[in-house]
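Supplementary Note 2. Why include the ligand at all?

Several targets in our set were suspected to adopt different conformations when bound, so apo predictions alone were not considered sufficient. For every target with a known small-molecule partner we therefore ran a joint prediction. The input for phosphoenolpyruvate is given below.
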Amino acid sequence: MMPKTGHPSPDTPTPEEAVRAGADAGEDTVEETATVVDAVPAHTPRLAGVPASPGAAVGPVARMAARPTLPDRAPAAEDPAAEADRARAALEGVARWLDARAAGLTGDGAAVLTAQALMARDPELARRIGERAEAGEAAAWAVHSAVGAYQELLLAAGGYLAERAADLADIRDRAVALLLDEPMPGLPDPGHDHVLVADDLAPADTVQLDTDRVLAIVTRQGGPTSHTVILARALGIPAVVGCADADTLRDGTAVAVDGDAGTVDVEPDAESVERIRGRDERRRALLAESSGPGRTRDGSSVALLLNVGEGDPEDAAAHDSEGVGLLRTEFLFLDRSEPPTVDEQTAVYTRLLKAFSGRAVTVRTLDAGSDKPLPFVGTGPEDNPALGVRGYRTARDQPGLLTDQLTAIAAAVRATGTRTRVMAPMVSTPDEAAEFAALARGAGLAEVGVMVEVPAAALLADRILAHVDFVSIGTNDLAQYTMATDRTLGSLPDLLDPWQPALVSLVAAVGRSGERLDRSVGVCGEAAADPLLALVLVGSGVSSLSMSAPALPAVRHALAHHTREECRRLADLALAASSAGHAREEVRAAANPEVDLW
Ligand code: PEP
Ligand code: MG
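The joint prediction is reproduced in token form.
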């Protein structure tokens, strides 16, 4: 037995050694879904969370600091002139910090940070802050209030200036943190490979991740279908979410993160590090042989497609896939305060369609609202935004956004000739499906579908399919609405489990409708990325599976080891199970053990 962490034996690696091992493991990490973790040695403290993005890595923690909060009551400034100097010095400190970060980057990244540093040195901003400090506000409060007023001016000016308001908020938070002697908010930049630990990540944080440096992500909040998870999977970064004890992890502590098992081992011993690396190596070898179109063992096709959002389309196209099953267009315009013009959108879609020339691309119209607010899609304050104006519903008040988008997509299709399907998110009724189909066809788009993400749409799939050419099931939202469980919650992961028999049963109802009416039914939610569940989906009548690139090889490998009839039998088992856990276990026991992934 190895000694407890904190009392190292000659065999126990120092944190630095563990980190070095982790850097290697990080490079070697296989990102596809794996299975069971061997029992951890009793002396390695283990934190449990929700498995979120497959793969494993070992490295030192770097925490994402929260935005500083100013106490309600500001202390009286004893020496206003000195406060003004402190405030201006903090801004200069932020500017220098930004310069230093920019120096380590090239291209757009460097340009963005340099521009932000210039803003921090804006003489008008310094003057306003000085004025407030000299009027008696303590330095941190002077920065806060002056920036707030300046932001309002920018927002009122609209356009490019309004977009800078968010940058200003970032500068403010950094300056206030310096003045309060708190850690810099936002993504950490420790200058070396690290495991990012955060309370939660906003989509905007995740898209800025330095994928070369972040070995794994651990968050205290977040459920198995939150957007943090989706983005982490898309980036191929192992992740554990809903890890209640994540806030006990300190900067620099070595951890081993297992994104398949949902565990975080603190100061892992050599045995844990070895175990994680060995398992990844076995799986990598297995999956390296997986390539080409999706087929069951008896040769029936199941299209294997990619979920695509931000990032270079050319990089996405380089993956071995049959096309795009879900282009999340809202991720292309997350940071915009004004709607992108038809021409801008046409250019973005054209680039993507060109990259996927010869394959099929399914473009989803903007899915704004709820956990994906877009500044330029005004949904107004709502008590229950997940049940409010989101997805296709935003077209009620802002029909122009949808028609502009359809116009841009049609123009990109004409420019490239790439086979393109278009679909609307969050459609609830056959009437909405008919309305969207008419709009999309009117814009010149030939293949039109809708997403099935609410139980109402699943229950009336026949009637919806009468209006459209295909449907794609969004199991993330379908789980949320079927189980009445907020998908962003970390506290009820079992209810959001895509193996819930109620969810599988709705998928099967839609699959049967598709088979009866000879229309294609896809799945583009995270359920499609689980190789064992993928078999159940195919056995339920699903003809295409769309997922983030790292998940593709394992799903392809699992399909290739089962006939369509075997998939049907597995689906029957899942449907008849009394719980998500039983469904998974029964299907696992009946599936082909040669797959060696579960
Ligand atoms: C889904 O809900 O399953 C889906 C694919 O859409 P999103 O995750 O973008 O809401
Ligand atoms: Mg959805």
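The chain is about 45% helix and 15% strand. Residues 425, 453, 474, 476-477 surround magnesium ion (ligand 2) (CB under 6 Å). Comparable summaries for the other entries are listed in the accompanying table.
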